[in-house]
Design goal:
The protein has 337 residues and is an alpha+beta fold. 30% of the residues lie in helices and 24% in strands. The structure holds 1,6-di-O-phosphono-beta-D-fructofuranose (FBP) and magnesium ion (2 copies). One of its GO terms (biological process) is gluconeogenesis.
């Protein structure tokens, strides 16, 4: 039996050092933690409870939704709408913002989330996750609007993800570094197991969906080719490759042992007028906050993601993140192009 620090104790201790803290933020994080525990249980039971497979619906990106995309979205809404901490929510799976029902008090925070990340893996029992980010509403007391969510990543006050893998973990930043917690199923508590996670500046491991190679832009083609050329090439060292197709699992690997993850822009997307594959508010910004807090870098290819001014709720952007020196090398290749 361990006597580790629970995530609630950790958050409360951290908030003790925040001037003017009211407890709202702690309580909001606790509701998010509860939602992830419910989702962990749902994902773990999978076919036993009939939650695998596709739903007969599409999200605003035109992707066929999985049953679990919809069920996990519901869990997040129900767990977070009632307590009076939120002004509104926005989800990858909802076309418009979710306004807090009038029967509940409205609060000062905004929550954005990707309820199930790595959906294409759920039916094949590969790790999936949940990604979230917390902002403070900037506007007045009126009803929140989509515009309230269009804040740069630097405005985030917290970000995190849950990883439903061999064990269920939660990784969190509130702007004071990055900490990882493992769910002890026996007591139903997330316990601090990975304090102060940091990303090594150098790595010999990259992750990209190589099936898109012919559509990539020259800087990415050059970077990946040099990795593949290994010892015989300009890098003079062999590189390893990974692709799980769950962003949460890729980022967790990078937080644990370094690496670089790339979902770059490509000509196929450009032809469709698409700005990238991954969503700025639900995936790119929260993961960039976590990666930067762990000493890594996160860019579109040409600029820092967290400096981007969002233009729309479901905007997609290119994402290149991970070990700082590799990310800077890729930025340099784009500058030279
Ligand atoms: O299917 P691909 O091209 O390998 O893309 C995988 C990427 O798409 C995603 O699954 C998109 O996220 P969702 O599953 O939340 O839609 C990422 O997690 C992952 O990195
Ligand atoms: Mg996702
Ligand atoms: Mg998703």
């Amino acid at each position: 039996m361990h006597n580790g620090t629970t995530i609630t104790q950790f958050i409360i201790e951290e908030q003790r050092h925040v001037a003017g803290a009211t407890g709202d933020f702690t309580s909001l994080l606790n509701d998010i933690v509860t939602a992830c525990k419910v989702i962990s249980n749902m994902v773990n039971h999978g076919a036993l409870v009939g939650v695998l497979g596709s739903a007969e619906s599409e999200n605003i990106q035109g992707e066929t939704q999985k049953k679990l995309d919809i069920l996990t979205n519901e869990v997040f809404i129900k767990s977070n709408e009632w307590a009076g901490h939120l002004a509104a929510m926005a989800s990858e799976e909802m076309d418009t913002i979710y306004d807090i029902p009038a029967k509940y008090p409205r609060g000062k925070y905004l929550l954005t989330f990707d309820p199930l990340d790595g959906s294409s893996n759920i039916d094949v029992n590969v790790s999936v996750g949940t990604i979230f980010s917390i902002l403070r509403i900037q506007g007045g007391d009126g009803a929140p609007t989509e515009r309230d969510f269009l804040q740069a990543g630097t405005q985030q006050i917290a970000a995190g993800y849950a990883l439903y893998g061999p064990s269920t973990m939660m990784v969190l930043t509130t702007g004071n570094g990055v900490n990882g917690f493992t769910l002890d199923q026996n007591i139903g508590e997330f316990i601090l197991t990975h304090p102060n996670m940091t990303i090594p500046a150098d790595t010999r491991e990259f992750a990209i969906n190589a099936s898109n190679m012919r559509f990539w832009e020259p800087p990415v083609k050059r970077y990946v080719q040099e990795c593949l050329d290994g010892k015989e090439g300009p890098r003079g060292e062999d590189f390893n490759m990974r692709w799980i197709a769950s962003m949460v699992a890729e980022v967790h690997r990078i937080l644990t042992r370094g690496g670089v993850f790339m979902y770059p822009i490509d000509s196929k997307m450009k032809d469709k007028g698409q700005g990238g594959k991954l969503r700025l508010l639900y995936e790119a910004n929260p993961m960039s906050f976590i990666v930067e807090q762990a000493g890594g870098g996160s860019i579109t290819g040409t600029q820092r993601i967290m400096d981007l001014q969002p233009e729309s709720l479901h905007q997609r952007v290119p994402v290149i993140l991970g070990s700082k020196n590799e990310v800077e090398r890729i930025l340099g290749y784009h500058d030279q192009a």
